[in-house]
Every structure is written in C-alpha cells, then in structure tokens.
Fold these 2 entries.
Entry 1:
Amino acid sequence: MRAPVRIKTLTIDGKEVSAKEGETIWQVARENGIDIPTLCYLEGLSPVGACRLCLVEVKGANRLLPACVTQVEEGMEVTTNSERLVNYRRMILELLFSERNHTCSVCVVNGHCELQRLAQRLGVTHVRFPYRYPDLPVDASHERFAIDHNRCILCTRCVRVCDEIEGAHVWDVMGRGIKSQIIADLNQPWGTSDVCTSCGKCVHVCPTGAIFEKGKAVAEMEKRRQFLPYLTIMRGGKQ
Amino acid sequence: MAQQIVIEPVTRIEGHAKITIKLDEEGNVADAWFHVTQLRGFEKLCEGRPFSEMPSLMARICGICPVSHSIASAKACDQLLAVRIPEPAVKLRRLINLAQILQSHALSFFHLSAPDLLLGFDSDPQKRNLFGLIEANPQMAKDGIKLRKIGQSVIEILAGKRIHPSWIVPGGVSEPLNVEKRDAILAMLPEAKEITLRTLQWFKFSLEKFRDEIRAFANFPSLFMGLVTSEGKWECYHGRIRVVDGGGHIVADQLDPTEYQDYIGEATEPWTYLKFPYYKPKGYPNGMYRVGPLARLNIIDGFGTDMADQEWAEFRELERGAVLSSFYYHYARLIEILHTVEKMEELLNDPDILSKHVRASAGLNNLEGIGVAEAPRGILFHHYKVNEEGLMEWANLIIATGHNNLAMSKGILQASKHFVKGKQLSEGMLNRVEAVIRAFDPCLSCSTHAVGHMPLHIQLIGPDGTLLDELRRD
C-alpha cells in the first residue's frame, strides 16, 4: 500500500493553495500559475539555489528564501513579487551583466536567451555597476560545440545535466567567488575530454549563449529541452 | 506661440575630423592636412571570437551601411568554409546590397548634401540643414525621405530588420524570399524610379550654379578603382577589380580581389588614425586612387540597364577622359540610385530569387578568407585569418573612406588654396572645405552630420608654427 500523501495548505501572493509534502515553493507556485524567475533551476535537474533570482518573502522568516530549494510548510504565507524582491532581482541581473562580457547584439542566442528575456521582463534598462570586462577565452576545441566563458553565468546546469542525466561528468567548477569558472575534466580543452559523449545536453540546458553549436550565426541558436522531462520520467522521476 | 527649433551640436562622435591649413610667408596656403582623430579598433577587438559572429560583429562598424560590411564579411567567411554558395543566395545578397546602396546614397544626397546644393554654400548655417530644406523645398525633402525609406524597407523585408540585421550568414542567407515579400518590394520600386528621375533632372539643371565648386572640389587626375563584371559592367557583389587613370585609360583590369595585397599598399602617417591605401605599382603617395560612385562610373563600360546606361553616357560626356571633379560624386550617386532600382526589378523578376536553396553548410576548411564587395562609398575589403578551432586571429579591413583618404587630403588642400583668402577664416570657407569631404560621403559624416553639423576643427597655422586663427564646431 502506498503511503498516504500529506497535504499542506499555504498562501502564495494571497492565494490559498494546497501542496504535497516535500514540494518546493517554486514547484507549487508554478502549479498555480505563478512564475517565479530563475536562471539556475531547471525541472529534471537537482536544484542548487545558485542564482538567487527565485528569492521570496515568507512571513515570519527573518531573511529571504530561495523558492527552488525551500519546501512548503503548513500555513506559510509567501510573497513572490514585491517591490523589494523586484529590486533585488534587477540588481542580481545587473551584477551578472557587469561580471562578464554579455554582448547580446553579436550573440548566437540573441532573441532566445533566458538572461536577456528576464532582463527585459524585469525592466533592466541600465547597469548601475561598473563592468569588469574580464579577459576570458572561447574554447572551440570540440568538433561540434564551443563554450564562451564570456557569456557564462555559472548556473551549473551543464555540470548537473552531464553528471545527473548523461552520467559523464565532464563539466565542473574551478576556483572560488569571482574567479569561478566552468572547466572540462581536469581543466583541459573540451575537445580533449575522454569522457565527453558529444550528446549536446549541456548545450541545450545552458540558459545563455555560453555553450553553443558551432556554425550557428548570430541569433540562430535555439535551445531545445524537450528531452529533459522525458529522460527524468525514464529514470523513475528521481532527481 | 512662436516655435523654436534649436539644432545643437550632438554627441554622436563616430567621426571627429580636424583640418590643419598651413600658410607660407606671404600668407598663402602652403599645405593642408585632414586628420581623423578617432580609433575604432575593430580589427583588434574581433580577435579570439568565432568567425561565425563576424558578419554581425563587423556590421556594427556602421549604422548606415551595416549590410555592406555583413556582405564583405560573409564572403570572407564563405572562403573559410570553402563553399560556393547557392546562386539564389548570391542573388539575394546582391539584392540587399543594392537596397543598401540606394538608401545610403539617398541619405548622402538628400539629407546631408542637398542643403548645400539647394540653399547655397554661403546660406545661413542655421538654416542649412534638413529642416531648412523642408522649408525651402518640401517636395525634395519628402522625396529624399521617401527614397531612403524605400531602400530601408527593402532591407527590412528581406532581412527582418533595417539596421544590423543578421540575415546574411556564412554560407548564404538564413531565410529564403517568399512571393508576398517579393511583391511588396516590387510594388515600391516604381515610385523610387520616379523620385530619382525627378531629382536627376533638377540636379543636372542646377550644375551651372556650381562652376566654382566643380573646379575646386578635389578636381585633379587620380586613379579610380572598383569592381566590374567580366564584361566590364557595373558590379556590386562579385566581380574583379579594374583600375583606370585620370585620362580614362585602363591601367589594370580583372585583378583578383583576393590578391589585393599585391597591388594595394597601406601607408600610415603620424597625424591621423586613418591609413592611406595606395596603388602599389605607382608607389606612395603617387598611387592615389579614388573609389565610390564617381570611380565606379569612371571605370565601367556601362551599367547593363537601359535608363542608367543613358544617364551614364551623358555623364561621361562631361569630360573627355575620366570625370575628375569630386563634386560629381553627387551626380554619380543619383545615377547609381537609378541603376539599383532597375537592377532590383530585374533580380526580383527572376523566378530563381524565390528558391529555397539559399545556404551552403560546411565546417571550417580554410584558415584564411578574403571578402570583397562594393559598399555605397566604394570597394570594401574584409580579410580574416582564423586558428584551427575557427577563432579569429587577425583581421584587416580596408574601408572606402580609407581608399579615398589621399584624395580627400589633396582635395582639402586644393579647396583651401582656392577659397581661403587672407588670414581670417569665414563660415562660407569652412562650409566649402567641409563640403569637399562631404562629396566623398565619408563614414565620418554619415554618423555625425545628419542634422547639418559635422564636428570639425580647422586651424590656420603661420610659417613659424603660430596659430593664426581657429574655427571649431563640436
């Protein structure tokens, strides 16, 4: 016999909703038609709470909580879209833009980019912080794909999809803080990786133009993620 | 309530220019320099980027002729892929380049130069701009705006966007043309033809008034360079290079554009950021040549379309050899507009233009590529070298304004000698010197000059190096 499902009731943006125990605020909000912005969370991959864009206010909590990793509790009162939250989200996006070299006009995913779309949705028209203009390389050593660190926001979706779904674990993160960078294997050119299966999953989960197919011209690259839910179901719904 | 329009010097500074005029002991003009005081650095900033970005990245050099840069860049990338792109893609690229030439020429003639031509070089500088033009001759102002709009609309219909479209890609174009779009373009062309013919009539009739300017606006023998077809006709996309001298004689013909380094050298001078390309067999600076509308009309054996050919024949009657005065750039521009309209009609009536086969795909096969095309202002070279991963290692661009640099400098000296009298500068003189540059329609004016003001700085220096007089417009 299956264990009974425990139901929790809570309010999100003043709306009374019910949820299964163990679900996160992000998932419950989504089920109820409330879209909380995120750049690192992707259904089918384990959540890491890295980008902080899904921060929400919970009554009684003395800090903001990331909706993608916070499980619902009975009687919770959640606010997903206050002025304070929008200000923080804008600031996070501005910090992302200032951190590396995001030049939408010549990017392969111009018009199909999650970072760009979110900035437009949240009304980011200016970046108040000085740009850092780091000198970062493009690794085009792979036969079919390339990674441009200038456009990477360190969401680690590529790391997780390669590890959790493909099982190859080519990608990882090196360094700390502002010096963090995605690396292939033991920090070697992607094309020399022994374990990369060239499946292309990292290319398609990447929210920006950081990982892309070679030969695509500006604005031509669209990310296709239909495979993710399918693969997750095949793996028994486990994350 | 009285209306007030104030045209202030604007901060769009893609082309700061400075002119220095030197006087001898007697107070006569001894020498003149044309300084371009800004460095853009596109050749440097593309290093390390994937070559597939180049057609869009290089297009950002200019907001007026992004299409021309895209085309030269995509042609260089085609060579990196080592593909011969499908014929319909060639036709579509040619079509959009014609539209580009049309809109840019319309901008140069109507928006930038017509105020001088219609109102006079000595007219009130407050009125000598597009708004003054609207007041004095609303029909002509409307015509100019309409004509440019037609060119821009063609670009938008073909490529999805007027400025900086990303439709032109390595290997061809990203989307084919459909019947609705073709018909929409065809429907606009008769009006463009009408406007051009009307303006040509007016301009030919007005030439009388500008005898002095015709005589002193960079009017000297030089070489002329541009692309021609294998039959020697006008060409803007493929073709080979022909060089003609001041007497109208062919000096070199059917040169392979990808071997440009064999016959074009690039000299630098410490007082300007703009290089001085020259024709190598004649050396520097004797290998001075001009490019652009005037040059193209001087080198060709004809356009290959009826109306333009008629106008061209009349144009070539102006002088026995090549037409030498740079004032005639304006005239040549109008004739070229006529041809672009005729040629676009011809291309659109070819059923092949609707073919779905518009892109060749390939990986990186060559590490070096050279793309050459005619931009509105003249022949344009993009030369790239990439590493084995397809990342840019080196780029060399020669842009029309660069080719004309020697001639522009000499033209300024000529105009200064003719118009500068004594030790005081007058506004009319400033405007004429400016107008010499404007006749070439250099890229410095295209971004800064749209409301009648080009940031310009003229210094008059005595033989001992003292500054005698100075005029500045920022």
Entry 2:
Amino acid sequence: MSALASAVALAASVAALVRSKLVALATAPQRFVVMIQRAIYDVRTGKRTAWDVTKSVLMSLFGLAMVLVLLFPLFWITTASLAEGSRLFNTSGIFPDPSTYNLGAYRWVIFESDFFFVDGDWGYPQLVLGGESGPVDFRWAGTETGPGAVFNSLYIVSVTLVAGFGMIVPAAYAFSRRQFVGRKRILYGYVLFTQIGAGLSIATLVALYSLFSTYGLTNNLFILGLFYAASAIPFNTWLLKTYMDNIPVSYEEAAMVDGASFLDTIREVILPLTKPGLAVVLIFVWLAGWNEFIIAQTLLRPENYPLSVELYNIATEGRFSTPWTRFAAFANLFALPVAIVYFAAQRSVEDGLSFGGMEG
Amino acid sequence: MASSQIGTDVSGLSRLRAALPFSNRDWGLLLVAPGVLLFSSFMLYPIFYLFYISLTDATFAGSVIGGGAELIGLGNYAQLLADSQFWTSMTTTWLFVAVSLVLKVFLAVGIALLLNHVRVAGKRYMRAAVIVPLGFPGIFTITVWRGMFSDARYGVFNTILGRYNEFMSSLSAPELLLFDVPIGFLSGRWEAFFAYVTTEVWLAYPFMVIIIVSALQDVPRSLHEAAMVDGAGALQRFRTVTLPAIKGPVLFASILTAATSFQQFLIPWVFNQGGPSRQNELIIVYGYREAITFNQFGLSAAILIVGIAFVGMFMYVAVRYGGLAEGVGDE
C-alpha cells in the first residue's frame, strides 16, 4: 500500500467519523423527546416518583449551567467576531448588540488580511510548461502580492506529518512487537519527554536560534516542519505503541498460518486495527505543526510567517487594543477545522490521553 | 496491559521472527533509529548546547554564534543565586503551580463526578462540550482570556462585577461585599496572578476530567449499589468507593499538569509579559526576557537549565512513582 493510498484511507476514516458524529448530533433532539416521554410515562404509571424526576432535572440543569459557564469565553469571542464595526467594550453590556451582527470581520480575513493571500489579493495556481526551473513548473497567477500565511502553515504541517508519521508508526510497531538492544532505555527516555512540549522548545530557544544560525537553517520552512515533527515524536510514539499493544499477537499468527508474509500482516492486521490510534496521532502531530508560533516567529522572516504567527501579531498589534472582531474571525478560521475533527474523534482522543499506567 | 500478553506469547513471536527477512533480532532498532536521531538532533542537542552557553559569558546573539564568548565556569549560576529577581520568579512559579493545581483538582473532580452521575441527562454531550478548551490553540484562548480580564471599566469581568455590585446594593448589602470596580486585573501584582491562575485552571482541567472520568467508568456500578444497600450515604460512598478508584489517576494527572504549569510561558507573556514591573515573571518568561530584552544569554541559559532540571525532576517522579512507564519494563 503506497503512502498516498494510506493517507487517503486515513482521511476517509476521519471523514466517516465526522459524518457519524454529525448524524448522532442531528438525531439527539429526537432521543431527548423520547427520554422526556418516558419519564412522564414512568411518573404516570407510578414507576418513579415526581420528586425522583425533579431531582434528575435539577441535576441536569446544574450540569448544563456549569458547561455554559466553562464555555463562556468561547461564546463571548464568537459573538465578538460578528460585531465588526461596533465598539466591543461599551456601556451596553458584555455582548455586542445582536442587531449589529455582520460578517465584516470574516470578509476582512478573507479579502484583506494575509490569511489566504498577502493583502487578500487572490490568485490561482497555474502550470508553466518548459520554464527555466524544469519541464513542468507551477506558479501563482492573478495575484500581485503572492500566496499568504495559510500556505506556509500547510507546507510546515505537511512536512511535520510526513516526517512524523514516517518515524512514529514504524517505531511504535518496533516498540510494541520487537525486542532489541536499548529498547527499554529509549522507551523510558521517550516517556520522560512525553509531557514536555512547547515549554521545552521555548526554554531551548536561545540555543536553537544560535544553532540554526550557525548551520544556516533559519528562515527554512522545511527544517521548521522537521523540528515540530521531532517535538511530537516521544508522546505520539508512546501513544501509538500502547494502542498496538492492545492488538493480540495471535491475529498476526493466524494471518501467517494462512500464508501471509510479514508485510501482509502489517498491511492486513496491524494498520487496520490501529486506525483509531492513527487518527489521534494525526490530530496531535497536526496540532504540533499548526499551533506553535514562538519558534516560528524567531526563526522565520515575515514573508514566511505561518498563520499562528499572524494570529499572534494581530493579538499584540496594539499594546492594549487588540482588534477583537478581526482577531476572533481570524482565530476561528484558523482553529475551527482542527477543532471539528478533534471533537469528532473525541472518544479516541480520550482513550489516547488516558494512556499508560492509568489502570493502576 | 497487553505487553504482558506479548511476553506470554513467545511461540507467536518466534514464528513471526522466523518469517522475517533479517536474522538479527535487533533489526527493530532500525525502525526506531530515525525518530531517535531526529529527536536527539532537534531536542537533546540544543539542551546540551544550552548548558554549554550557560557556562559562558555570552551577552549578545553574535557572541553565541560567532564564538566570541569565553567559558566562565559556573559564574552565571552564582550570579543567579544572588539575583533577587531569580528568587521572586522561583517563588511566584511554585506558588502558581501549587495554587492552580489545587483548584484544578477540585474543579476537575467536581466536573467529572457530575458528568458521570446517573441523574444527569445528556452527560455524554456535556462531556464532549466540557473538554472544548483542549481543541483550540493556546494563543487563541489565552488572548481571549486577556480580553476578558481587561482593565477597562467595560471589560467583561469588570462589567460582571459592576452588575454584581448593583445587585448587592439593591439588597442593601454591606460595603464589605462589594468590589471596587474597575479592577486592574493586569496591572496589579496579585490581580494579575489571580488572572494567570484562573486561565491556567481553565486550560488544564479538560485533561484531568478526561483521566478522572475514564477512571470513574472503571468502577463497577455493583460496588455503588452494594454500598447503598449497606446504608452508606453519598459522602461515605465517595470516600470508600469513588476516592480509592480515582486517587491514583488524579495523582498521576497532577504531576503531569504541574510539570506543564511549571513551564507556562504563554499566559504571563500574552497577559502582561510577566508584569507589573517583573513581579510575575514565571521561570521560563524570566529566562526568555533576560535573553530577548537584556541580551544576557549566558545568564538566560543558566535560568532555563534550572527550569529544565525541575521539569525533568517532575517527569522522573511521574515515571518512577506514578506508574507512567508501566508496560515498558515487562518483557
């Protein structure tokens, strides 16, 4: 199975996951009605007392109130993103007046900011045949300013994903199924580094900057992508290894008895059964390349800034006056695609995060 | 754990091995090596290099890169111990870790218990909603919190406190229960510290909730029912059934989130860059600032090495006593 085919298969399984979650969400009101009808029936027939039902209702309302309080910041910023043009902090209250809601901030992100194209000057890809740099070349046409931050982000993330998966999946297999010199020691080392992510990168920033400068690697998106892959390796290798540990070896045995080769067992047994684990690793590795901005800001020059750095720059544009509506719209477009996939895979993420010695 | 399964399944493994193209049993190392190499060159090597810088008198980026700095041994560390800013930073960092940890544990246990309770309808959706903060990038959520903690009279929290004041005055409550709005959340030392802690708790509780809920779900319902039959009240059931089940996981999650709190950089940096007047510089911010603002690269490196050493200690404790590496050793 080629790498491309497995990538497509993985994307398809993530899409299927998203779809099934959306269906479940759409049918939730119906199940809610059934639950209420059932409670009424139970009270009428004397199976439950009215007080018993009231207690349940109160507890549920309490839970709902708590969820609303906890999610208040996100609710607030989403309403803020719809209020381009009106002052946010004013006498009328916390939330902007719903009658002033508009999509102006999103229009700004798409057609004026550097999100998709620099200064929002949209272009389209064009193939050039027989150019100077090769028989088939590719360039942006119709834009005077060039592609924007999203392409830098996507480039970094692709490098991170390819390098990360290329190193994490085989290593997780080896840790789970093979014995070799230093296995225990390396695994211990990885576990030690699992929870040290962004903080460590910032801590070593001084050293990183001088090392990258010495080797002439600054302002290089490819190297930055590799760097993020490196930071994602310990945690994700460990996570995928625990996933593979839960696949009984007897499955592989059975396949081999049936005449499957070693590569067949990987393709037919290990990879399909590890799919949920692979989906979680996909999300985490993606996030490692997508969200980081301090290293990126230090090592890159402005024309190579990814979305995360642009977002940070909007947030700190004025010392005390973040342009909230634009910031919110930019941040929503930046974070939402990932967040949706994340919630669809929530069950697998939970399984993945409660990894390791949790049973003890 | 399944790795013990591998241990007992020797015949399966040996048959697998016999079918392999290599005769050497160590070929698995080849699969692991690229990752180890990449990780070492981008993560471990910089740490060693950072340690080297911490032994020099490098004062600007040029002298770090061009080799213009000289080795001065442990001078930077000595200077650090004499620097009152270092002790302010250390105290603030530990206080930040401790206070946010306690609040985190209580909040997370409360949420997990509520969202696992039989009486709560739709708890699976609530659980999905409650871990939302994990799905958004830190720079986004932290900036949003900065906006809510705005010093302005009509900032979100100041508005809420104003409403609260109006409400309490209408009840003719004593002056003592009222807030002196607007509160300068980002310009007072302890106000800013309070804002940091609130945000840190909000960022970290989802991870704890996930771990505690998965532990709670492993408690068989029959255990609760048996306790109820024996006449145990809610509090007693919590103490004898729930608490033993979640104690281990909570401890484990505490060590891990404490390690991340210790490295917290974004909250202080985005809020007010560790201010006012450097009083709230958590350790990483302190080190970062010494390098970026004051060009004290050697000193900065020493600070960060101290920080890394503490985090390493956290992780060592987690691995050693928290059972994090369970399943590494059993072959």
